[in-house]
Amino acid sequence: MPVEGSETMAVLTSDDVVRVRQAVRANAIKAGFSLVDQTKIVTAASEIARNTVDYGGGGTLLIELLREGARHGLKLTFADQGPGIPDLERAMTDGYTSGNGLGLGLSGAKRLCNEFAIKSTPGSGTIVSLARWR
Amino acid sequence: MAGEIPILQIGDCLLVSIQVDMHDRLAMALQDDLTVRIVQSRARGVMIDISALEIVDSFIGRMLNNIAGMSRVLDAVTVVVGMRPAVAITLVELGLTLTGVRTALNVDKGLAMIRRIIDDGERGAGAGRG
Questions:
Q1: Complex confidence, ipTM
Q2: What pTM value is reported for the model?
Q3: Is residue B111 included in any domain, yes or no?
Q4: Is B1 part of any domain?
Q5: Are A101 and B62 within 8 A, CB to CB?
Q6: pLDDT tens-digit series, residues B65-105
Q7: Looking at the predicted structure, is the pLDDT value of residue A94 above 80?
Q8: How many domains does chain B have?
Q9: Residue of A111, A130, A131, A126 lying closest to A60 (CA atoms)
Q10: Is the pLDDT of residue B125 over 70?
Q11: Residue B8: Cβ-neighbour burial (10 angstroms; 0-12, 13-18, 19+)
């Protein structure tokens, strides 16, 4: 799938979570997303970025602008080298939390995107990728 | 004083207008500052204006829920006003229902709601808070 542009950023602190929201917003506007679609992908990015900081011990975000024919999309890939998620199925369940959140981070972010994939290896890290098309 | 988010007092109501993209620590600080101010000022109502917020994710949603819950325990009513339509649509899809939080469309309607709830409460109880 042709990538029209990309950028990488560090996701280490809660200030970085704010920066992720701003960068994703800017790219969603570039991709021509409607206001509602912008809000959805920015909210999903905020959830996953916080997980990367709080549970993954920090990591990186790769933002890619996609184009497939006339379709424009945005793909976000969060990667960390943290402890990983031992029980992915449970982590994806609404209301399940290992921390002090509402347990909506992963499952909620998935609902806000068109494509969602998560790969986690205990001891070596987690990669979450999500995409939304215009 | 709230670290970076000012809390204004109008009569027996506290007004907070969130004008910045909040990082998590700032959200936690606001929560703490507000509870202190409710007790200090003996406020009966808290209005939180989120019209400038471009997103409400689960963390900010939890903060709003917490503020509403804590102010209820402290005998004050919380109303969240000014939510943007795109934020409302996203919140529902995210799965965040904000069940404990009262909302109003704008500051005017929010103040009227707080007034009504306080008045109803006092009539119902037969006497005000001592």
A1: 0.87
A2: 0.90
A3: yes
A4: no
A5: yes
A6: 999 999 999 999 999 999 999 999 999 999 888 888 999 99
A7: no
A8: 1
A9: A126
A10: no
A11: exposed
Q: A114, A112, A93: which is closest to A104 by C-alpha?
A: A93
N- to C-terminal Cα distance for chain A?
Answer: 15
Contacts of B55 in chain A (CB under 8 A): 21, 39, 42-43, 46
User: Does B2 have pLDDT greater than 70?
Assistant: no
Angstrom CA distances, B94 to A23, A73, B68, stand at: 21, 20, 20
Domain assignment of residue B50, given as a range: 7-126
For residue A39, the 8-state DSSP code is: H
| B115 class by beta-carbon count within 10 Å (0-12 exposed, 13-18 middle, 19+ buried) | middle
**Does A134 contact chain B (CB < 8 Å)?**
no
**CATH number, residue B114:** 3.30.750.24
Chain A closest CA to B51's CA: distance in Å? 14
Closest partner CB to B93 (pick from A21, A46, A111): A111
